[in-house]
Specification:
Blueprint lengths: L5 E2 H11 L4 E4 L6 H7 L6 E4 L3 H15 L3 E5 L3 H16 L3 E7 L15 H5 L5 E4 L6 H13 L5 E7 H5 L1 E2 L16 H13 L3 E5 L6 H14 L3 E3 L14 E4 L6 H9 L2 E5 L22 E6 L13 E4 L2 H9 L10 H14 L11 H11 L5 E4 L5 H7 L8 E2 L9 H11 L5 E6 H7 L3 H6 L5 E5 L1 H4 L3 H6 L49 H21 L13
Length: 562
């Protein structure tokens, strides 16, 4: 045990550094001031100050995706933690290692519904892998080590630790912990042998990739395996960067708006080799594509968490293994003697290329052509991020992801993810181009994090696709029926620099609205006589101008004298 007394906050930061954390995302709060004090003057770890806890948690989640080690986020108690829950949910459904550290009320005030008191075990129990509260500063190394191991072992996911504010100020002596270790599950050799045997017997096999726990070594071994055997390979929802989309074995992604030819291939496959993918609702189209609980085809499913085995599907062969060791074992076996499906693999890739070819859509903004230009212009290592919404169909379908971790997109369908993910990506890889796609509503959910990007001096490109650019938004079509709506009933996309077209606004008039001011008569201000007199003079001048021009003083009302 060390002889130097340290505060709980100092121990916490020392342990984070020992576990390899070089960056923390968060919003400063009074409930963990001792930890912030411990960060002061250190050069081995940075604190990225964010504008809202939801954005901070999403940045930490994206950092965990990119690095493979848990992304770390600090938030304050109560409202700070509830805001951060959006990022925790993303980490859960995306199988991303992440640790959320939450300031907590003092221990002596517990169970009195103190100011901003929350029971985090109950709050996060359903979306985190483990939730705990550290009551003794001497046990911080123990809890941190367990948090890192839990977040990364088996199916990766989020861990939440609550930190009572008085615990962080306690000065104690404690032994430092050991750095966390990457633990990977290796497959049973007999299961690998069965997999190769069944592949040799198949006529129309299909490989499906997904889930968490992948790294660069794993995708490299996967590429060797599918190349050697000419295996058609698809990916699950928003896992498109697991195999170079220009590779001859890549046949597309099975998600929302999947290529009908790929779905036909899936339906007629006689063997599905599913590596890492849980085959959730988005990939399985509401659990209708494969048959539930017993798939209609012969299926091998490889999952890295024992709790996931047989949870939804009952395949013919279940294998518990991390993606890396499993594909490395397959690649070491060499090519199969018979590969009757090789020509079909070429047809599958050709169908994918046909599906991403630019097509003309209504309006002046041609998003498929823009994506084709980005495919030709951006380097393979560019990182593309997006949140959720109709706009994401453009980059998910028409952009080609050519390098591992070039796609950051939430499988949980969380809006607002794109911008925080882009910030985290640029911080982790300052030498790689980063492009963020966001719909208008998606961008506004975390748009305040632009201030974070500016403060960090990050060169990112954010492309905001408004509802006028989605072209398929039923919400826009229906918005005109709502009272007071100014949404276009037939949106006409507008390209930069082009003349603004005449569009029908809510009332059906062909003329654009002159002003967004309210259409009903305003009341004069209540206050001093001079204020009321000024208001009357302004109204008189407006009415006078309207009589000369023939236009009403406000939209929707006739000119009237005052």
């Amino acid at each position: 045990m060390t002889t130097t007394r340290r505060s709980g906050g100092e121990i916490l930061i020392d342990e984070l550094v020992r576990h390899g954390t070089d960056r923390i995302f968060g919003v400063p709060g009074e409930s963990y001031l001792a930890a912030l004090d411990a960060l002061h003057g250190r050069n081995d770890i940075a604190f990225v100050i964010c504008r809202q806890e939801g954005g901070a948690a999403m940045m930490a989640e994206a950092d965990g995706k990119l690095t493979g080690r848990p992304g770390v986020c600090f938030v304050t108690r109560g409202p700070g933690a509830t805001n951060a829950s959006a990022g925790v949910h993303i980490a859960r459904q995306d199988s991303t290692p992440m640790i959320l550290l939450v300031g907590q009320i003092a221990r002596e005030a517990r169970d009195r519904e103190a100011f901003q008191e929350v029971d985090y075990r109950q709050m996060f129990g359903g979306i985190a892998k483990w939730v705990a509260e550290i009551e003794d500063a001497r046990r911080i190394p123990e809890y941190l080590h367990r948090a890192f191991m839990t977040a990364t072992t088996g199916r990766p996911g989020p861990v939440v630790l609550a930190l009572p504010e008085d615990m962080l100020t306690d000065e104690v002596m404690t032994e430092p912990g050991r750095p966390w270790q990457q633990v990977r599950a290796h497959p049973d050799p007999a299961a690998v042998e069965t997999t190769m045997t069944w592949l040799g017997e198949a006529e129309r096999p299909l490989v499906i990739l997904g889930g968490g726990g992948w790294d660069q070594d794993a995708v490299t071994a996967l590429r060797r395996f599918v190349e050697a055997n000419d295996l058609p390979t698809a990916v699950g929802f928003r896992r498109q960067d697991y195999l170079d989309n220009t590779h001859r074995c890549y046949v597309g992604d099975i998600g929302i708006g999947a290529n009908p030819k790929l779905l036909e291939r899936l339906d007629h496959a006689d063997l599905l080799l599913v590596i890492g993918a849980r085959l959730g609702e988005m990939t399985s189209d509401g659990y209708t594509r494969l048959g539930l609980p017993r798939p209609k085809q012969r299926m091998i499913q490889v999952l890295n968490g024992p709790e996931e085995l047989g949870r939804v599907y009952q395949p013919d062969l279940l294998i518990q293994a991390s993606p890396g060791p499993f594909v490395e074992a397959l690649a070491a076996r060499g090519p199969l003697a018979s590969r009757t499906w090789a020509l079909g693999t070429a047809d599958g890739h050709a169908a994918y290329l046909e599906n991403i070819a630019p097509l003309e859509i209504p309006g002046n903004v041609q998003m498929p052509a823009i994506m084709a230009e980005l495919r030709a212009t951006l380097p393979a290592e560019a990182i593309v991020t997006n949140g959720a919404g109709n706009y994401s169909a453009w980059c998910n379908r028409f952009y080609s992801y050519r390098a591992f971790r070039s796609q950051l997109a939430p499988t949980s369908g969380s809006m607002g993810y794109g911008l925080p993910a882009a910030i985290a990506a640029k911080l982790a890889h300052p030498d790689r181009p980063v492009v963020c796609f966001a719909g208008d509503g998606c961008f506004l959910m975390t748009g305040q994090e632009l201030a974070t990007a500016c403060q960090q001096r990050l060169a990112i490109v954010s492309w905001s696709s408004t509802t006028a650019c989605t072209a398929r938004s039923a919400c826009t079509r229906n918005a005109s029926t709502r009272r007071g709506s100014t949404a276009r009933s037939s949106p006409t996309p507008i390209s930069p620099g082009s003349p603004r077209p005449t569009v029908p606004w809510g009332s059906g008039s062909s003329a654009p609205r002159r002003s967004p001011r309210r259409s009903h008569r305003r009341s004069p201000p209540i206050g001093r006589r001079s204020s009321r007199s000024s208001w009357i003079r302004r109204r008189s001048r407006r009415a006078s101008r309207s009589r000369r021009s023939g236009l009403p003083p406000w939209p929707g009302r006739k000119a009237e004298s005052v």
